[in-house]
Amino acid sequence: DAEVFVGGSFAKSTVVKKEKYDADVFIRFSKKHKNKNLSKLTKKFLKGIKKQKIHGSRDYFKIYPKKKFAIEVVPVLKINKPEEAENVTDLSYSHVKYVKDKASLSKKLLDEIKLAKAFCEANKCYGAESYINGFSGYALELLIIYYRSFLNFLKNTCILEDIKDSKPVIDIENKYDNKNQIMLDLNSSKLNSPIILIDPTYKKRNSLAALSEETFEKFKEKCKDFLKNPDLKYFEKQKTDINQVKKQAKQRGERFLLLEAKTTKQPGDIAGSKLSKFHKHLAEEISQFFEIHEKGFNYDMKKTARFFFVLKPKKEIVFMGPPVKDKENVKRFRKEHKKVIQKGERLYALEKVNNTPREFVKEWKKNNKRKLKEMSIKKLRILE
User: Fold this and answer.
1) How much is the average pLDDT of 39-43?
2) How far apart, in Å, are the Cα atoms of 275 and each of 131, 150, 263, 304, 377?
3) Which of 219, 228, 336, 380 counts the most CB atoms within 10 A of its CB?
4) How far apart are CA 378 and CA 375, in angstroms?
């Protein structure tokens, strides 16, 4: 009562060169298994095989036949209509079919899709995982089907702007009559992405829901740079030269800080998500006292991530104090701070930044043990 099909890039012949490869193998259960635990049924099939259980909206399993090659065994429900899907992975079969049908009309499309994937992979914009918030493989396939070529995709996408009350919408199969219908029909949580891409196999789904504003802006910059000066380097992953970053920071009279954080969460999307969230939170904390001129995040796909900051101490930082009417707290506030000013009906304190970035992180770590635990961070180390 189940059938097996290969999905993802392998099935569509759109695989691009990577350091590591994942092949999606779906076990498609018949409808008689609806409302059953499909993950448990899949686990029975894999008895005796060394595997890693990956937690998600529906648990799946990862098998490593080779060091840099993984097979992801994903349980799905066989459905006739997208509305019957219990999980987004249940739509995978229709995704594969749609892309293969379109590619059969033009073999050139496959090469154009590979170019788009290679470009996004090299520039860290490829992947719907929450620590990347980029373009999923399926979303890139749809965009190339829509724009017909890699260059058209770049030219059109890099000039898209979020005009107020006018979010760009792409509806390849014209599932809706107008944009207002889309805004009313889609779940509000699916409308936050900078572009809305209607899934041609299920109109209530935004295929670019995972794309963040930050990743999209980074992608647009890379598009503009490439179109000005096309070069093969844009298809090759550029590793950050930490020594060079450190050297340039020193020449500009800035401070360099390199940290390593370890999470308690499961390796992969969950750990990456926690570490990325912590990196953003720590950056916000640091930015209160230092100007961040450059920063970087590198996740090792296990339980640790490294991030660097190039910083310059702020000359003064402003602390908001009590309202002038609050006599008791005003007295205490003036006692605690040497330089106090009044703006309107409230007091503010101006303080000089005396700590180095290393001292700041040490102090912050000491005072935020509870916060570290809440954010599932097991260890935070200062490397440089």
Assistant:
1) 93
2) 8, 32, 7, 8, 8
3) 219
4) 9
Would you mind telling me the total number of residues written for the chain in this entry? 384
Alpha carbons 264 and 88: distance in angstroms, whole number: 27
Residue 146: pLDDT band by 50, 70, 90 thresholds? Answer: very high
What is the per-residue pLDDT across 357-378, written as a single tens digit (0 to 9) for each?
998 899 899 999 999 999 999 9
Average pLDDT (32-48) is 90
Distance in angstroms (rounded) separating the CA atoms of residues 58 and 34: 13
Interatomic CA distance for residues 121 and 373, integer angstroms: 32
pLDDT of residue 1: 87
pTM above 0.90, yes or no: no
Provide CB contacts within 8 A for 21, sequence distance 6+.
Answer: 15, 68, 69, 70
CB contact set of 267 (below 8 Å; sequence gap of 6+): 301, 302, 303
CA angle (377, 383, 384) in 5-degree steps: 135
pLDDT by residue (tens digit) across 242-291?
A: 889 899 988 998 899 999 999 998 888 888 889 999 999 999 989 888 88
**Three-state helix/strand/coil letters over the chain:** CEEEEEEHHHHHCCCCCCCCEEEEEEEEECHHHCCCCHHHHHHHHCCCCCCEEECCCCCEEEEEEECCEEEEEEEEECCCCHHHCCCHHHHHHHHHHHHHHHHHHCCHHHHHHHHHHHHHHHCCCECCCCCCCCECHHHHHHHHHHHCCHHHHHHHHCCCCCECCECCEECCCCCCCCHHHHHHHCCHHHHCCCCEEECCCCCCCECCCCCCHHHHHHHHHHHHHHHHCCCHHHHCCCCCCHHHHHHHHHHCCCEEEEEEEEECCCCCHHHHHHHHHHHHHHHHHHHCCEEEEEEEEEECCCCEEEEEEEEEECCEEEEEEEECCCHHHHHHHHHHCCEEEEECCEEEEEEECCCCHHHHHHHHHHHCHHHHHHCCEEEEEECC
Residue 243's identity, in one-letter code, is N
Interacting residues of 202 by C-beta distance below 8 A, sequence separation 6+: 82, 83, 85, 91, 94
What distance in Å separates the CA atoms of residue 191 and residue 383, rounded to the nearest whole number? 40
